[in-house]
Write a structure and sequence with these properties.
The complex is a heterodimer of chains A (597) and B (319). Chain A is α/β, with parallel strands linked by helices and 597 residues long. Chain A is built from 16 helices and 26 strands. Chain A folds into 4 domains: 195 residues, P-loop containing nucleotide triphosphate hydrolases (Rossmann fold); 78 residues, Elongation Factor Tu (Ef-tu), domain 3 (Beta Barrel), CATH 2.40.30; 116 residues, Translation factors (Elongation Factor Tu (Ef-tu), domain 3), CATH 2.40.30; 173 residues, Rossmann fold, CATH 3.40.50.300. The chains are: A alpha/beta (597), B alpha/beta (319).
Amino acid sequence: MAASLLRLLTCGSVDDGKSTLIGRLLHDCQALPADKLAGVTDFSLLADGLEAEREQGITIDVAYLYFQRGARRFILADTPGHEQYTRNMATGASRAELAIVLVDATKGVLTQTRRHATIARLLGIRSFVLAVNKMDLVGYDRDRFAAITGDFATFANSVDIEAVTAIPVSALEGDNITAPSARMPWYDGPALLPFLEAVEPPGGPAVAGLRLPVQQVIRDGGARFYAGTLAAGSVRPGDEISIAPAGTRATVARIAMMDGDLDQAAPGQSVALSFATEVDCSRGDMIAGGDPPQLADQFEATLIWMTEAPLLPGRQYLLKLGTQTVPATVQEPKYKLGIDTMEQLAARTLALNEIGDAVVHTARPIVFEPYEQSRALGGFILIDRLTAATVAAGLVRFALRRSENLHEQLLTVTPEHRAALKEQRPKLLWFTGLSGAGKSTIANLVERKLHARGRHTFLLDGDNVRLGLNKDLGFTAADRVENIRRAGEAAKLMMDAGLIVLTAFISPFRAERAMVRELVPEGDFVEIFIDTPLAEAERRDVKGLYRKARAGKLANFTGVDSPYEAPEQPDIHIDTMAMDADAAADLIVRHLLNGQD
Amino acid sequence: MTCDGKNRHEAFRRNGRTGLTLDHLDRLEAEAIHIIREAVAEAERPVMLFSGGKDSVVMLHLARKAFFPARPPFPLLHVDTSWKFAELYELRDRLAAEAGMALIVHRNPDAEARGINPFDDGAAVHTELWKTEGLKQALDAGRFDTAFGGARRDEEMSRAKERIFSVRSASHGWDPKRQRPELWQLYNGRRAPGESLRVFPLSDWTERDIWAYVAREQLAVASLYFAAERPTVARDGTLLILDEEARYPFASGEAAVTRRVRVRTVGCWPLTGALESEAATIDEILAEMARDGSSERAGRLIDKDQPASMERKKRQGYF
């Protein structure tokens, strides 16, 4: 009964006859029950799926099909040939060890053939079958087959595909599927199924040492067991291991299984270890032996974008790699791959089904290996914080800034760490406008709305600051500058603490607003102009200040005897004559969250 | 099928020592345990659907392995219809007790009050009220955000594309467009407010794998899967086992006939088609499947009501 398991992927262009080939494989391996086979003359119908797809006449997702032949169990991922479905193709390829690339013998190697093979290789498939299909339509012509395999070999070399087995087949007629075809005596290689039954796909460079990402801590009375699936290496009782990222060392006591303890565990096994001494180890940690694992908070990765909403550089996503989930941001892509030729193109974002390379920052260092060495330790997904949807798949290429020395992991707590803990990006919402324009009112509303959404905020109001921190300052031009400088510095400290800071100061001078903008990280200063005409502010005169100023009882009053320099290009312009305070606050909240939810 | 649990464990240990690769059942087992642990790690209130059928027996066994030496940290849930086979009720209670896990049995009070049954109300209404509605009620009552199910992708074509972690809306509906891409063994167990997950650890298992695993692990499954003389009636081309003869509405001229039959899946007894068979052991079952297979769910009358019926039921919240 024991069989080995092979996961494979079929890919090819729309009309290459993929569904027919899959139907043929299932049929020839008796994977299809009689009632499904009854009356079916078109094998392609056997690989059919969802209701909506039948209506459209195309497959729109990944379907998994199961069959067995001899001592091998196959799990076949069928992914659609339509070019806009890169997402499904990558999903199907992510676990496959071998890809069958279909080519229509009457058409030869097409752009889409190359694209699919490239994606399969990118996702880590190293073993390829080039199935040249519809040989019946080209008179089982040897030269045609040779020309196509030659074409493909040239291309394969260019994308680092080494192991290619080319087989001429007719899925429709059954040639070279289960046994060598008498109609192609010139072909002396294996038929497709016998080849799949025997092939041992080559592995990539291995990780040197044990890698066991911890999924769960299982408590049984006082004992603790650390459960996970071995991603690389092996482990035995008595082994000295380290726990990344902390670097704590421990000795393996038991590999506890319900069937009895194991002497040794190998990659792919789901185990539970206990240690000889009590150590700190929890979900997201990595039990490691041999070469220490890599640890970094900044690396270059290939991203495959999988959702309608495009990548927003700078927005915070959740990154899940192995059992680690951390907040992460993605920089503007370095490039994306052209859909046809796979050449590197300039890009500012990635849209659905686009593939590109970008720098990823994580809120804290994560333990990983490059994807080429380990799918389990180098493949990650990005998750939208609000919808919880999986928005992208990523492949770690290399670390840009390694966190050296696992044993001294006492990190300085940086503003990034504090912000990550609050799961938000600190911002400075700088409200400026005339006295009585509505700055405090709107800023208060914005703070309430942000607070309701779980954001950590603080509102620095000009009047209040002048009662405390700045009570030594008056209203001369120099004091106004110092007033703003202190407010800016205070706001900056609060941003370092991880807060979204709102300020409501008249802040009449462009230069001081520019100075504050310089104080904080680029892009984090949001200038909000509360634009109320002087006549209107004076008409409202909520605090009676304009009356006092006009009566000469207040000197240096902005708009009366001191100038107000309106922002030339505010980030947000609120015209209070055109909208009420609540609508203004909503607009500001939308603007802010657009960049980070 | 000579490999018993002990021999198998010896083989496993040997493999570990010599570095041989895991066989396909070892891999499917390890992958399913990984799935169960991952789902529980990311869930707040997980629950496991458990009927006592062969798939749920395998799933429970995997859950026990996943959390050994502790007990699985979630309850079992059976959405009952009052029309299950008597043997399954006994097995369900016994296995839950053996595992030391809490068992929640839910019967839709509305269906119970109205006496909904497959004979008077038809398979569609019966299934909708007892199973689909009953499941929603039970999940809402327990505020469960993640429910394990024993469905396999090889059972039915629309299931071939089902995710392992399948997202359901607040009303438990399934929207093919909202399903997340699933890469590697990296599962996204997060839920937006109101959403819940169905998790299928046996997705990649086939019916043959289930039987081979039942044999290898020496799991207790219902005797109904094995051929024996049983009282039956033939109705609309389907053989029904009369599990509770007193509740069966005999048509005039209709009478119980003893036939040598077995079932491939167990649902409600009035909706479970039996097949005439001589297969009395797992080896014989596997041989019978290879010889004259028909699709496993072909015996399930509930799938036949309308075209693409499984998919429609899933959209409404059927497991």
